[in-house]
Write a structure and sequence with these properties.
This protein has 313 residues and is of the alpha/beta class. It has two domains: 230 residues, Alpha-Beta Complex (Spore Coat Polysaccharide Biosynthesis Protein SpsA, Chain A); 70 residues, no CATH class. The strands form two sheets. Strands 3-2-1-4-9-6-10 form a seven-stranded mixed β-sheet. Helix 6 runs antiparallel to helix 8, helix 8 packs parallel to helix 9 and helix 9 packs antiparallel against helix 10. The longest helix is centred in the last third of the chain and has 20 residues. The termini are far apart. This is Capsular biosynthesis protein CpsI.
């Protein structure tokens, strides 16, 4: 099939990486436009955006009203609103695509029921400090992928850890390609109130409303750059700051689950994870009383992998 793709790149303080990211997307004939959603950078990224837009016809530069800083979620939403191609792909400004990025999409999107295709991404360490921080927090980091091919409801169930085999807790947004019509028909956008995890929150909602399918999952189709300023490496797992961010993320999903009246099995799974982080934020004796009451109400909460967020803190 003939594809037309809009690649959306949110840009904030990425002056040292942006040109490589843009060039990696511009190499593809299918990519008809590269949308730079600039978010009031302070490091000269805006000037680089303007330079790239003047030199590469595919590149289009947009900013929020009055040049405001609104975060990655709002910047990606701006890109979606400005996109004109049939398909949408995402790329972080400090990452880049590999030449096989859209190989699976060309074949799989011939199936009319497929709304989105995703694959695996590799890791490149750009600084030694970034490498040490990343490796101290994550295992099996050479390839971020899911564990087996899947599509449709199996993807959604896998992301919620409701499958007999371990599917994987998420996949990277850089590896996802979507029909723009699917986003519009389901009115799906990033939650702009989430400053982090808005990508994984969107992916779970997408997996419920749309038919997602694995593409290339045994080798990288894009590369994630790891450096000193990666936000994901700065937070210690199950620290108060980590738990607060997870609480906001799962709280957003739970409100979505209630509003959309999703099946009880799924809603309860989301609730249990959300509630475990909610309990982790309580303090003093009331914390342990709240834990006991919740276990009496929902014994399953003691079996979630998140139980130690409140047992050991």
């Amino acid at each position: 099939m003939t594809m037309t793709i809009s690649v959306i790149i949110p840009v904030y303080n990425a002056a040292g990486f942006l040109e490589k990211a843009v060039n990696s997307a511009a190499q593809f004939e299918e990519v008809r436009e590269i949308i730079l959603a600039e978010d009031r950078s302070t490091d000269g990224s805006l000037e680089i955006c303007r330079k790239l837009a003047s030199e590469i016809p595919k590149v289009k530069l947009f900013q929020h009203p009055n040049g405001e800083n609104r975060g990655a979620g709002a910047s990606r939403n701006l890109g979606i609103d400005k996109a004109t191609s049939d398909f949408i792909a995402f790329l972080d400004a400090d990452d880049y695509y590999l030449p096989n990025r859209f190989d699976a999409e060309k074949e799989l999107f011939n199936e009319a029921h497929i709304d989105g295709v995703f694959g695996a991404i590799g890791t490149e360490y750009l600084t030694e400090k970034g490498k040490q921080e990343f490796e101290s927090k994550f295992k099996e980091v050479s390839l971020s992928t899911v564990n087996y091919p899947a599509e449709g409801e199996e993807v959604f169930r896998g992301l919620l850890s409701l499958t007999p085999k371990t599917f994987g807790t998420s996949f990277h947004l850089n590896s996802l390609t979507l029909r723009r019509s699917s986003l519009e028909s389901h009115k799906i956008r990033f939650n702009e109130s989430l400053r982090v995890h808005q990508d994984t929150e969107l992916i779970i909602r997408l997996a419920y409303h749309c038919c997602l399918k694995t593409g290339i999952i045994d080798r990288a189709i894009a590369i994630r750059g790891i450096h000193d300023d990666n936000r994901i490496t700065k937070i210690i797992r199950y620290s108060p700051q980590y738990n607060q961010r997870q609480h906001l993320y799962w709280g957003s999903l739970y409100r979505w689950a209630v509003a959309n009246k999703i099946p009880d099995e799924y809603k309860k799974r989301i609730y249990l994870v959300y509630k475990s982080f909610d309990l982790s934020l309580k303090k003093g004796l009331s914390k342990y009383g709240s834990i006991l009451l919740e276990i009496l109400k929902n014994p399953e909460i003691a079996k979630t992998k998140y139980r130690f967020t409140y047992y050991n803190r």
